[in-house]
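Table S4 entry, Bifunctional protein FolD.
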Amino acid sequence: MNSAAPGQLIDGKAVSAQVLAEVTADVAALKAQGVEPALAVVLVGDDPASHVYVRNKVLRAGEVGIRSLEYRLPAEASAAEVLALVAELNGDASVHGILVQLPLPKHIDETAVLQAIDPAKDVDGFHSENVGGLSQGRDVLVPCTPAGCMRLLRDTLGDLSGKHAVVIGRSNIVGKPMAALLLGADCTVTVLHSRSKNAQALCRKADIVVAAVGRPRMIDAEWIKPGAVVIDVGINRIEEDGKSRLVGDVDFAKVQPLTAAITPVPGGVGPMTIALLMQNTVTAARQQHGTHLSAGTPLQAVAQ
């Protein structure tokens, strides 16, 4: 079991670099077997943040050797046009991963689009078949942010078996799959949400706290048991002292001294999400071609 010094920073940048190095080796192994992993990214509309996210994903894919394809549709594109593109990509055997950047314009049903993606190519892990498979412990594509959190926890603590983990937030993207992954790692799991009673007292019992509630600095020292490991998924932009700052859901300055280890914001969970997306793409390519890699770490070994 790895030991953590009091208040140790969990360096998501360093761990993500390690994951990307593993992915680069996996891509090379696949290419040597005649398979070039390919990721298709679909962007609908002109949301500035979405453009940044897509650009970063495409850049990272290029760095690890994954072929990327960008499909940009105007904001006024119809749901039928988006679904037709997804169907085309589903049928293209040279495309192994499909990512539809969210949010979509309001006139398009996000659930319908996500459900249209072939589950074997659903590198975001949002299709109901992958969601259900995760809850059953099957070998499926896992949402990238929770999978990244699991990698950070395993690198910090080693074996998670028997630890009490508290997940704050129950979103479909982070909270629920995070709880499923922790259960799969033999943790005792409590999920706290807006209707939870005695939330602080429950959280103070946790060996592991994963904060994914979307409220800046909500989790202060009153929530944390001394020696806990804290993973802060929140990314909130606030105005403070006349400056725009990124802060997490955890009040870092107050909480860090209590912890065994904690992720900073930025530089903690954030870099892991794209790294695990690349790993999901390689996993999808491997599974679709029935090949076995000799390098790197398969996603399920990270997630469960």
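The domain at 143-270 is CATH 3.40.50.720 (Rossmann fold).
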